Amino acid sequence: MTISELEKSLLALSVNERARLALALLHSLESQDPDTYENWESVISERAAAYRNGDSKTEAADHVLARLRERERNFASRRVG
């Protein structure tokens, strides 16, 4: 079975079944390495400090969400077409 065939079959599942599968797939991507969590905590702390100090570039959430929606529309149109 190709990835395209698998994708087509999976998209035929119900919304609840797809959500359950999506959650399982996301959990499978999570690292079990404790160092990964420590590294992320460090990155988050650094980014939060940069934000508080005004050293990071910010963008309004509505602009970010609009850009993501546009990307998703473009992605979906490539899959259909």
Short structural description:
By secondary structure, this protein is mainly α. Helix content is 78%, strand content 0%. It has helices at 3-11, 15-29, 34-52, 61-80.
How many strands, which pairing sense, and closed or not: the largest β-sheet? none
Q: What is the number of E strands? A: 0
If you average the pLDDT, what whole number results?
Answer: 90
SSE order: HHHH
Number of helices: 4
- N-to-C CA distance: 22 Å
Regarding quaternary structure, how should these chains be classified?
A: single chain
Characterization of the model:
The chain is an all-alpha fold and about 80 residues long. The two termini are about 20 Å apart. About 80% of the residues lie in helices and about 0% in strands.
Which key phrases capture this entry?
about 80 residues, mainly alpha, single chain, 4 helices
Topology:
Elements: H1 3-11, H2 15-29, H3 34-52, H4 61-80
